[in-house]
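PROTOCOL LOG
Step 1. Enter all chains and additional molecules of the complex.
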Amino acid sequence: MATLLSLKRRIRAAQNVSKTTKAMQMIAASKLKKAQDATLASRPYVEKVSLLVTDIATRIEQKDFHPYMKTNSLTGKSLIIALSPDKGLCGGLITNILREFFAVSDANKDASYVVVGKKLEGQVTKLQNEVLASFHFGTTLPAFGVVFPLIKLIDEYYLSEKVDTVKVLYTDFTSIFSQTPKIVTLLPVTLPDTSGTGEKGDQNNFSLFEPNVSGLLPDLLKHYLEMTLFQYFLESYVSEQASRMIAMQNATTNAKDIITELQLEYNKTRQSKITSELLDITGSKRAEGAQN
Amino acid sequence: MQLDIVTPEKIVYSEEIDELTVPTPQGEISILPEHIALVTRVSEGELTVIVKGKTYYLAVTGGFLQVQKDKITLLADYAIRSDDINTQKVLEARKRAEETLTKKREGMSERDFAVAESEMRRAILELKVSSKRRKHSNIPGQ
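Step 2. Run joint prediction.
Step 3. Record the structure below.
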Protein backbone atom coordinates (compact mmCIF):
# COMPACT_ATOMS: atom_id res chain seq x y z
CA MET A 1 0.00 0.00 0.00
CA ALA A 2 2.56 2.51 1.18
CA THR A 3 4.85 1.71 -1.72
CA LEU A 4 2.18 2.64 -4.24
CA LEU A 5 1.65 5.99 -2.59
CA SER A 6 5.37 6.71 -2.24
CA LEU A 7 5.97 5.71 -5.84
CA LYS A 8 3.28 8.10 -6.95
CA ARG A 9 4.92 10.86 -4.93
CA ARG A 10 8.29 10.17 -6.46
CA ILE A 11 6.83 10.25 -9.94
CA ARG A 12 5.23 13.58 -9.26
CA ALA A 13 8.47 14.99 -7.86
CA ALA A 14 10.39 13.87 -10.93
CA GLN A 15 7.74 15.39 -13.16
CA ASN A 16 8.04 18.72 -11.40
CA VAL A 17 11.80 18.64 -11.71
CA SER A 18 11.59 17.90 -15.40
CA LYS A 19 9.18 20.81 -15.88
CA THR A 20 11.55 23.21 -14.15
CA THR A 21 14.63 22.03 -16.00
CA LYS A 22 12.76 22.11 -19.29
CA ALA A 23 11.75 25.71 -18.65
CA MET A 24 15.31 26.66 -17.73
CA GLN A 25 16.57 24.92 -20.82
CA MET A 26 14.20 26.89 -22.99
CA ILE A 27 15.11 30.20 -21.36
CA ALA A 28 18.80 29.47 -21.84
CA ALA A 29 18.18 28.47 -25.45
CA SER A 30 16.43 31.71 -26.28
CA LYS A 31 19.10 33.77 -24.53
CA LEU A 32 21.78 31.72 -26.23
CA LYS A 33 20.54 32.56 -29.72
CA LYS A 34 20.77 36.29 -29.11
CA ALA A 35 24.08 36.03 -27.29
CA GLN A 36 25.61 33.84 -29.94
CA ASP A 37 24.63 36.27 -32.67
CA ALA A 38 26.12 39.21 -30.80
CA THR A 39 29.32 37.38 -29.89
CA LEU A 40 30.03 35.94 -33.30
CA ALA A 41 29.20 39.23 -35.02
CA SER A 42 31.70 41.29 -33.07
CA ARG A 43 34.48 38.70 -33.16
CA PRO A 44 35.93 39.76 -36.54
CA TYR A 45 35.92 43.39 -35.44
CA VAL A 46 37.79 42.69 -32.23
CA GLU A 47 40.26 40.48 -34.08
CA LYS A 48 40.95 43.24 -36.58
CA VAL A 49 41.37 45.85 -33.87
CA SER A 50 43.95 43.74 -32.06
CA LEU A 51 45.69 43.01 -35.36
CA LEU A 52 45.85 46.72 -36.05
CA VAL A 53 47.20 47.46 -32.59
CA THR A 54 49.92 44.83 -32.76
CA ASP A 55 50.76 45.89 -36.30
CA ILE A 56 51.19 49.50 -35.23
CA ALA A 57 53.27 48.40 -32.26
CA THR A 58 55.81 46.77 -34.58
CA ARG A 59 55.99 49.84 -36.79
CA ILE A 60 56.60 52.60 -34.32
CA GLU A 61 59.69 53.45 -32.39
CA GLN A 62 60.21 52.79 -28.72
CA LYS A 63 59.95 56.47 -27.82
CA ASP A 64 56.45 56.67 -29.27
CA PHE A 65 55.20 53.78 -27.16
CA HIS A 66 52.08 54.39 -25.21
CA PRO A 67 52.12 53.43 -21.50
CA TYR A 68 49.81 50.52 -22.39
CA MET A 69 52.61 49.02 -24.46
CA LYS A 70 55.56 49.41 -22.15
CA THR A 71 57.00 46.32 -20.61
CA ASN A 72 57.93 47.71 -17.25
CA SER A 73 58.62 45.05 -14.68
CA LEU A 74 58.77 47.13 -11.56
CA THR A 75 56.54 45.44 -9.07
CA GLY A 76 56.08 41.98 -10.53
CA LYS A 77 52.46 42.16 -9.54
CA SER A 78 49.47 41.50 -11.70
CA LEU A 79 45.90 42.57 -11.73
CA ILE A 80 43.57 39.69 -12.48
CA ILE A 81 40.08 40.30 -13.73
CA ALA A 82 38.02 37.14 -13.41
CA LEU A 83 34.65 36.71 -15.06
CA SER A 84 32.14 34.14 -13.87
CA PRO A 85 28.37 33.73 -14.02
CA ASP A 86 26.04 34.99 -11.30
CA LYS A 87 23.98 31.85 -11.28
CA GLY A 88 24.77 28.17 -11.04
CA LEU A 89 23.09 25.19 -12.64
CA CYS A 90 25.25 25.39 -15.70
CA GLY A 91 27.01 22.05 -15.74
CA GLY A 92 30.74 21.87 -15.28
CA LEU A 93 31.31 25.47 -16.29
CA ILE A 94 31.81 26.92 -12.83
CA THR A 95 33.96 24.00 -11.70
CA ASN A 96 36.16 24.56 -14.73
CA ILE A 97 36.36 28.28 -14.10
CA LEU A 98 37.28 27.71 -10.47
CA ARG A 99 39.97 25.19 -11.39
CA GLU A 100 41.52 27.70 -13.78
CA PHE A 101 41.08 30.49 -11.25
CA PHE A 102 42.97 28.65 -8.52
CA ALA A 103 45.67 27.59 -10.96
CA VAL A 104 46.16 31.24 -11.84
CA SER A 105 46.13 32.41 -8.26
CA ASP A 106 48.76 29.80 -7.42
CA ALA A 107 50.97 31.12 -10.18
CA ASN A 108 50.47 34.77 -9.18
CA LYS A 109 50.82 34.82 -5.42
CA ASP A 110 50.59 38.54 -4.85
CA ALA A 111 48.06 39.45 -7.46
CA SER A 112 45.20 41.85 -6.96
CA TYR A 113 41.76 40.81 -8.06
CA VAL A 114 38.69 42.24 -9.65
CA VAL A 115 35.93 39.68 -9.76
CA VAL A 116 32.79 39.76 -11.81
CA GLY A 117 30.01 37.33 -11.00
CA LYS A 118 28.64 36.01 -7.73
CA LYS A 119 30.07 32.55 -8.24
CA LEU A 120 33.63 33.81 -7.90
CA GLU A 121 32.79 36.44 -5.32
CA GLY A 122 32.59 33.83 -2.58
CA GLN A 123 35.71 31.99 -3.69
CA VAL A 124 38.06 34.92 -4.01
CA THR A 125 37.75 35.76 -0.33
CA LYS A 126 39.37 32.41 0.45
CA LEU A 127 42.58 33.79 -1.01
CA GLN A 128 44.56 36.16 1.17
CA ASN A 129 44.77 38.65 -1.65
CA GLU A 130 43.64 42.14 -2.30
CA VAL A 131 40.23 42.32 -3.92
CA LEU A 132 39.80 45.69 -5.53
CA ALA A 133 36.23 45.37 -6.62
CA SER A 134 33.47 42.92 -7.15
CA PHE A 135 30.80 43.33 -9.77
CA HIS A 136 27.76 41.29 -10.64
CA PHE A 137 27.73 39.70 -14.03
CA GLY A 138 24.00 40.00 -14.54
CA THR A 139 21.74 37.48 -16.17
CA THR A 140 21.05 39.31 -19.40
CA LEU A 141 23.27 40.14 -22.35
CA PRO A 142 26.01 42.42 -21.01
CA ALA A 143 25.66 46.04 -22.05
CA PHE A 144 28.70 47.88 -23.29
CA GLY A 145 28.62 50.09 -20.18
CA VAL A 146 30.00 47.25 -18.04
CA VAL A 147 33.53 47.83 -19.27
CA PHE A 148 33.86 51.44 -18.17
CA PRO A 149 34.22 50.95 -14.41
CA LEU A 150 36.65 48.10 -15.10
CA ILE A 151 38.74 50.23 -17.41
CA LYS A 152 38.81 52.98 -14.83
CA LEU A 153 40.21 50.50 -12.33
CA ILE A 154 42.70 49.16 -14.84
CA ASP A 155 43.90 52.66 -15.64
CA GLU A 156 44.21 53.50 -11.99
CA TYR A 157 46.38 50.50 -11.23
CA TYR A 158 48.22 49.98 -14.46
CA LEU A 159 49.08 53.56 -15.35
CA SER A 160 50.21 54.38 -11.84
CA GLU A 161 52.47 51.31 -12.13
CA LYS A 162 51.04 49.48 -9.17
CA VAL A 163 50.82 46.40 -11.35
CA ASP A 164 52.87 45.14 -14.29
CA THR A 165 50.28 43.17 -16.14
CA VAL A 166 46.55 42.97 -16.40
CA LYS A 167 45.17 39.52 -16.99
CA VAL A 168 41.64 38.41 -17.71
CA LEU A 169 40.07 35.07 -16.90
CA TYR A 170 37.09 34.44 -19.15
CA THR A 171 35.35 31.52 -20.78
CA ASP A 172 36.02 31.10 -24.45
CA PHE A 173 33.05 29.96 -26.47
CA THR A 174 34.18 27.40 -29.03
CA SER A 175 30.85 25.76 -29.64
CA ILE A 176 27.60 25.00 -27.86
CA PHE A 177 29.14 21.81 -26.53
CA SER A 178 32.53 23.16 -25.61
CA GLN A 179 33.59 26.18 -23.58
CA THR A 180 37.04 26.58 -22.10
CA PRO A 181 38.09 28.98 -19.38
CA LYS A 182 41.10 30.91 -20.55
CA ILE A 183 43.54 33.34 -19.05
CA VAL A 184 44.81 36.09 -21.33
CA THR A 185 47.07 39.06 -20.86
CA LEU A 186 45.21 42.25 -21.63
CA LEU A 187 47.98 44.69 -20.81
CA PRO A 188 50.65 45.44 -21.75
CA VAL A 189 49.74 44.99 -25.38
CA THR A 190 51.69 41.92 -26.41
CA LEU A 191 53.98 42.49 -29.30
CA PRO A 192 54.13 39.71 -31.85
CA ASP A 193 57.38 37.80 -31.80
CA THR A 194 58.95 38.94 -35.02
CA SER A 195 62.43 37.55 -34.44
CA GLY A 196 61.90 34.19 -36.08
CA THR A 197 59.12 34.85 -38.54
CA GLY A 198 61.25 36.29 -41.30
CA GLU A 199 58.80 39.09 -41.99
CA LYS A 200 61.52 41.67 -42.09
CA GLY A 201 60.40 43.21 -45.34
CA ASP A 202 57.07 44.00 -43.85
CA GLN A 203 58.62 45.46 -40.76
CA ASN A 204 60.78 47.88 -42.67
CA ASN A 205 57.74 49.20 -44.41
CA PHE A 206 57.33 52.82 -43.62
CA SER A 207 53.92 53.61 -42.32
CA LEU A 208 52.21 56.95 -42.33
CA PHE A 209 50.17 58.07 -39.35
CA GLU A 210 47.67 60.85 -39.57
CA PRO A 211 47.73 63.13 -37.71
CA ASN A 212 50.65 61.44 -35.90
CA VAL A 213 51.34 58.44 -33.72
CA SER A 214 50.86 60.23 -30.45
CA GLY A 215 47.57 61.66 -31.62
CA LEU A 216 46.22 58.36 -32.82
CA LEU A 217 47.52 55.79 -30.41
CA PRO A 218 45.75 56.78 -27.16
CA ASP A 219 42.35 56.71 -28.86
CA LEU A 220 43.05 53.47 -30.63
CA LEU A 221 44.38 51.72 -27.56
CA LYS A 222 41.48 52.89 -25.45
CA HIS A 223 39.13 51.59 -28.08
CA TYR A 224 41.05 48.33 -28.27
CA LEU A 225 40.86 47.88 -24.53
CA GLU A 226 37.14 48.53 -24.40
CA MET A 227 36.31 46.28 -27.31
CA THR A 228 38.50 43.38 -26.18
CA LEU A 229 37.21 43.50 -22.65
CA PHE A 230 33.64 43.63 -23.85
CA GLN A 231 34.25 40.69 -26.14
CA TYR A 232 35.44 38.69 -23.12
CA PHE A 233 32.17 39.53 -21.41
CA LEU A 234 30.19 38.39 -24.42
CA GLU A 235 32.17 35.16 -24.72
CA SER A 236 31.67 34.42 -21.04
CA TYR A 237 27.98 35.15 -21.26
CA VAL A 238 27.35 33.00 -24.29
CA SER A 239 29.38 30.19 -22.71
CA GLU A 240 27.23 30.37 -19.60
CA GLN A 241 24.00 30.15 -21.57
CA ALA A 242 25.24 27.33 -23.79
CA SER A 243 26.51 25.39 -20.83
CA ARG A 244 23.26 25.88 -18.94
CA MET A 245 21.19 24.85 -21.90
CA ILE A 246 23.09 21.59 -22.29
CA ALA A 247 23.07 20.92 -18.55
CA MET A 248 19.35 21.49 -18.34
CA GLN A 249 18.74 19.36 -21.40
CA ASN A 250 20.59 16.50 -19.72
CA ALA A 251 18.69 17.08 -16.51
CA THR A 252 15.38 16.94 -18.36
CA THR A 253 16.37 13.70 -20.10
CA ASN A 254 17.45 12.18 -16.80
CA ALA A 255 14.22 13.19 -15.13
CA LYS A 256 12.24 11.67 -17.99
CA ASP A 257 14.22 8.41 -17.64
CA ILE A 258 13.52 8.31 -13.94
CA ILE A 259 9.82 8.93 -14.56
CA THR A 260 9.68 6.00 -17.01
CA GLU A 261 11.40 3.69 -14.57
CA LEU A 262 9.18 4.74 -11.68
CA GLN A 263 6.08 4.43 -13.80
CA LEU A 264 7.05 0.89 -14.72
CA GLU A 265 7.66 0.00 -11.10
CA TYR A 266 4.40 1.62 -10.11
CA ASN A 267 2.45 -0.39 -12.70
CA LYS A 268 4.13 -3.61 -11.66
CA THR A 269 3.37 -2.97 -8.02
CA ARG A 270 -0.20 -2.11 -8.80
CA GLN A 271 -0.59 -5.26 -10.90
CA SER A 272 0.90 -7.48 -8.26
CA LYS A 273 -1.40 -5.91 -5.69
CA ILE A 274 -4.45 -6.66 -7.84
CA THR A 275 -3.25 -10.21 -8.43
CA SER A 276 -2.76 -10.83 -4.76
CA GLU A 277 -6.20 -9.40 -4.01
CA LEU A 278 -7.74 -11.68 -6.63
CA LEU A 279 -5.88 -14.60 -5.12
CA ASP A 280 -7.33 -13.68 -1.76
CA ILE A 281 -10.86 -13.55 -3.15
CA THR A 282 -10.68 -16.75 -5.14
CA GLY A 283 -8.90 -18.47 -2.28
CA SER A 284 -11.58 -17.54 0.20
CA LYS A 285 -14.34 -18.51 -2.27
CA ARG A 286 -12.79 -21.94 -2.67
CA ALA A 287 -12.48 -22.35 1.02
CA GLU A 288 -16.14 -21.44 1.35
CA GLY A 289 -17.13 -23.94 -1.41
CA ALA A 290 -15.10 -26.70 0.24
CA GLN A 291 -16.82 -26.10 3.54
CA ASN A 292 -20.27 -26.32 1.99
CA MET B 1 42.69 46.27 -53.79
CA GLN B 2 40.66 44.61 -51.10
CA LEU B 3 38.45 46.70 -48.84
CA ASP B 4 37.03 45.35 -45.60
CA ILE B 5 34.66 47.47 -43.57
CA VAL B 6 34.10 45.84 -40.21
CA THR B 7 31.83 47.05 -37.42
CA PRO B 8 31.11 45.46 -34.05
CA GLU B 9 27.76 44.31 -35.48
CA LYS B 10 28.91 42.73 -38.72
CA ILE B 11 31.21 42.80 -41.71
CA VAL B 12 29.56 45.52 -43.74
CA TYR B 13 31.65 45.42 -46.87
CA SER B 14 34.29 43.08 -48.21
CA GLU B 15 35.10 43.46 -51.88
CA GLU B 16 37.72 44.33 -54.46
CA ILE B 17 37.61 48.05 -55.13
CA ASP B 18 39.37 50.62 -57.31
CA GLU B 19 39.16 53.75 -55.20
CA LEU B 20 38.06 54.76 -51.75
CA THR B 21 37.38 58.22 -50.36
CA VAL B 22 37.05 58.62 -46.61
CA PRO B 23 36.44 61.58 -44.33
CA THR B 24 39.20 62.10 -41.76
CA PRO B 25 39.68 64.82 -39.15
CA GLN B 26 42.21 66.42 -41.52
CA GLY B 27 39.84 66.38 -44.47
CA GLU B 28 38.85 63.85 -47.07
CA ILE B 29 41.44 61.47 -48.40
CA SER B 30 41.26 59.21 -51.41
CA ILE B 31 43.07 55.94 -51.60
CA LEU B 32 44.12 54.42 -54.87
CA PRO B 33 45.99 51.15 -55.40
CA GLU B 34 49.66 51.15 -54.34
CA HIS B 35 48.95 53.66 -51.61
CA ILE B 36 51.59 53.96 -48.92
CA ALA B 37 50.86 52.16 -45.64
CA LEU B 38 48.71 54.46 -43.56
CA VAL B 39 46.83 54.50 -40.31
CA THR B 40 44.37 57.25 -39.58
CA ARG B 41 41.19 58.13 -37.78
CA VAL B 42 37.98 58.26 -39.73
CA SER B 43 35.45 60.90 -38.85
CA GLU B 44 31.71 60.77 -39.24
CA GLY B 45 30.59 61.20 -42.80
CA GLU B 46 30.20 59.65 -46.16
CA LEU B 47 32.40 57.04 -47.77
CA THR B 48 32.72 56.79 -51.50
CA VAL B 49 33.80 53.52 -53.05
CA ILE B 50 34.47 53.20 -56.77
CA VAL B 51 34.31 49.73 -58.27
CA LYS B 52 34.75 49.38 -62.02
CA GLY B 53 33.55 52.90 -62.73
CA LYS B 54 30.50 52.60 -60.52
CA THR B 55 30.23 54.69 -57.39
CA TYR B 56 28.78 53.38 -54.16
CA TYR B 57 28.09 55.33 -51.01
CA LEU B 58 28.25 54.34 -47.37
CA ALA B 59 27.54 56.22 -44.19
CA VAL B 60 30.11 55.84 -41.42
CA THR B 61 30.15 57.24 -37.90
CA GLY B 62 33.84 57.23 -37.20
CA GLY B 63 36.52 54.66 -36.63
CA PHE B 64 39.99 53.74 -37.77
CA LEU B 65 41.41 53.15 -41.20
CA GLN B 66 44.41 51.01 -41.95
CA VAL B 67 45.93 50.86 -45.40
CA GLN B 68 48.41 48.11 -46.14
CA LYS B 69 49.73 47.05 -49.47
CA ASP B 70 46.59 46.43 -51.56
CA LYS B 71 44.52 45.87 -48.48
CA ILE B 72 42.36 48.40 -46.68
CA THR B 73 40.73 47.72 -43.37
CA LEU B 74 38.20 50.14 -41.99
CA LEU B 75 37.17 49.55 -38.41
CA ALA B 76 34.02 51.57 -38.03
CA ASP B 77 31.81 52.13 -35.02
CA TYR B 78 28.85 51.95 -37.33
CA ALA B 79 28.58 51.76 -41.09
CA ILE B 80 25.81 51.13 -43.57
CA ARG B 81 25.63 50.89 -47.35
CA SER B 82 23.42 53.51 -48.94
CA ASP B 83 21.38 50.70 -50.53
CA ASP B 84 20.59 49.29 -47.13
CA ILE B 85 19.37 52.55 -45.66
CA ASN B 86 15.67 52.35 -44.97
CA THR B 87 14.58 55.97 -45.39
CA GLN B 88 11.28 55.39 -43.67
CA LYS B 89 12.94 53.93 -40.61
CA VAL B 90 15.56 56.64 -40.52
CA LEU B 91 12.92 59.35 -40.65
CA GLU B 92 11.16 57.70 -37.74
CA ALA B 93 14.42 57.47 -35.83
CA ARG B 94 15.11 61.14 -36.48
CA LYS B 95 11.66 62.07 -35.29
CA ARG B 96 12.13 60.03 -32.14
CA ALA B 97 15.51 61.60 -31.46
CA GLU B 98 14.11 65.05 -32.15
CA GLU B 99 11.31 64.51 -29.66
CA THR B 100 13.70 63.29 -27.01
CA LEU B 101 15.96 66.26 -27.56
CA THR B 102 13.26 68.92 -27.43
CA LYS B 103 10.72 67.57 -24.96
CA LYS B 104 12.63 65.86 -22.24
CA ARG B 105 15.52 68.21 -22.02
CA GLU B 106 15.07 68.82 -18.31
CA GLY B 107 15.36 65.87 -16.00
CA MET B 108 17.31 63.90 -18.57
CA SER B 109 20.70 62.44 -17.78
CA GLU B 110 23.67 63.64 -19.74
CA ARG B 111 24.12 60.18 -21.16
CA ASP B 112 20.58 59.95 -22.55
CA PHE B 113 21.01 63.32 -24.11
CA ALA B 114 24.26 62.30 -25.76
CA VAL B 115 22.67 59.09 -27.04
CA ALA B 116 19.74 60.98 -28.56
CA GLU B 117 22.08 63.50 -30.06
CA SER B 118 24.26 60.88 -31.71
CA GLU B 119 21.15 59.09 -33.02
CA MET B 120 20.03 62.36 -34.50
CA ARG B 121 23.39 62.93 -36.15
CA ARG B 122 23.42 59.42 -37.52
CA ALA B 123 19.90 59.80 -38.92
CA ILE B 124 20.78 63.05 -40.66
CA LEU B 125 23.90 61.48 -42.12
CA GLU B 126 22.04 58.43 -43.38
CA LEU B 127 19.41 60.60 -45.02
CA LYS B 128 22.11 62.61 -46.71
CA VAL B 129 23.85 59.54 -48.03
CA SER B 130 20.67 57.86 -49.20
CA SER B 131 19.40 60.98 -50.97
CA LYS B 132 22.68 61.08 -52.86
CA ARG B 133 22.18 57.56 -54.06
CA ARG B 134 18.70 58.36 -55.36
CA LYS B 135 19.93 61.39 -57.24
CA HIS B 136 22.52 59.24 -58.94
CA SER B 137 20.20 56.42 -59.79
CA ASN B 138 17.84 58.92 -61.43
CA ILE B 139 20.36 59.66 -64.12
CA PRO B 140 19.16 57.87 -67.26
CA GLY B 141 21.26 55.00 -68.44
CA GLN B 142 22.48 54.01 -64.98
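Step 4. Note key features.
Chain B has two domains: 2-82, 85-137.
The beta strands of chain B are 2-6, 11-16, 19-24, 27-31, 38-51, 54-68, 71-76, 79-81.
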